[in-house]
Structure formats: C-alpha cells, structure tokens
Amino acid sequence: MLARFLPRSKIVAMHKITSKLPVYFASDQHFGAPDNSSSRDRELRFVEWLEELEGKTDVLFLLGDLFDFWYEYKEVVPKGFTRVLGTLARLRDKGMTIYFFVGNHDLWMGDYFEKELQIPVFHEPQLFEIQGKRCLIGHGDGLGPGDKGYKRMKKLFTNPVAKWCFSRLHPNFAVGLGKSASLNNRLISGDEDVTFKGRENEWLIAYCEEKLKQNYFDYFLFGHRHYPMKVHLNGGSFYFNTGDWLRYDSYAIMEKGELSLKSLRSDVSFPEIL
Fold first, then answer.
1. Against a cut of 0.85, is the pTM above it?
2. Does residue 182 surpass a pLDDT of 90?
3. Domains of the chain, CATH where assigned
C-alpha cells in the first residue's frame, strides 16, 4: 500500500564524488524569516561557517530551504542575501563543488544559481556515491505517506499556468505576498517539526524503508524536518536528517565513509533512533 505514496523515481544516473576530503551537508537556513534582524544574524553565522570550510572540503551539499521565500522572474530575483550569495560565488570561483536541492520554500528556483553561480540545482532526490557509499540525497518534502497538504500545494505551485499567473504580478506585491505566505506556513508547522513523532509516524523513515526494498543505500540524507537525527534502518542502512539553522545550527559531515551530525552550538545533542 505504501508504494502508491512514493513519487516516481527521476534518478537517471549515479553521481560519483571522487574527492577524498570530508564532504559537508546543510539545510533549512530559511534566510528572510522571521524578520530581517534575526535573519541577518543567522546569515552571518552561516557565512562564517562557509568560510571556515575553505581548505577543509571541496564538496558541499545544500539540501534546500536556503531561503524562506524565493521566486525568479525572468529578469528579477528577491533582493537581499548578498553575503551568502557572494560567499557561495567566491567558493565556487575557488573550485569548491556545490550542489543545491530545491526545498518547499525555494520551490520556484529557476536557473539563477546555475547561470550566476555555476551551482547545479536538483528538484528531486539524487543518488550519489561518496567515499564508496551509496547515498540518496534530497530535501525531503513530499516524500512518503504523509505531508499530504504540501503535496497538494506543490501540485498547484508547480503548475505552469499558476506560475505564469504569479509572474504577471508586480514583484513589489508578489514577493511581499510570497514572503508572508511562506512565513505563516513555516510557523504553523514549526512546533510539530521540532519533535520526534515516533518511528511509525515519521514519513521520511517510511519512505527510506520502502526505497530499501527496491535498492540498497548506505545513507539517506534529507532536510525539511527541522529535527536533526540519525535513524537505523534495515540492513545496516541509515537515515540522517540535517536539522536546521533556526534552532540547531546543525550540519552533517562524511569522513572516510562515516556520516555524523555536528552543530555550531555546544548545547545541541542528536538523537539516535534504533
């Protein structure tokens, strides 16, 4: 029964990472929320972290919701975020490989990152081989048997007619409307997202377990849940969630084939679900 909830796989090939340096993963920075002041402080922390990666790694994965709202017109993108965008551009210019996965808050990302920053953008989970490990990586939204409200919303928001209609709105109105709607959506689901719901109610765990019936993966890496965790799955596989930068300042790192969770904060601990 669960299989009918799983999206059709759009994985066409395995991406192979050949670097022997540690590989870093982070998600859900939500820049722009809930206000400019707190977002600016969070952006500065994240930029400092990015700058510290220079020399430590040459591969970085951003697993979505970098922005709390993002929409690309043909000639216009939302203002702000200059520090993080500038830092990503500088790291790319120095040779760091960066992969970006679209989240539910930056769902309308087009080709801006690819053209301006030379950062490939993925809209679906992708298979990577990293340090000899098979990893299925994505943002995590709309996967598994839950998240039904978002699944309906995503169908509407990705509809070409709906996107065309939104593009007809002036940015002064449309971006403000989008920011307000995105912020309210995050606040409504926020309290639920930061607690563990029980293994049987975690739809990303259900998704991973179902995917393991089709193919083996050493690691599943997702964001979206805003709750950093390590979950043991069948056959020695693991599901990791990278948490967020709203509460945890958390990220994942793979070294010598071993994946672990870290935080900039000393008061953060990570549950391990057996």
1. yes
2. no
3. 2-273 (3.60.21.10)
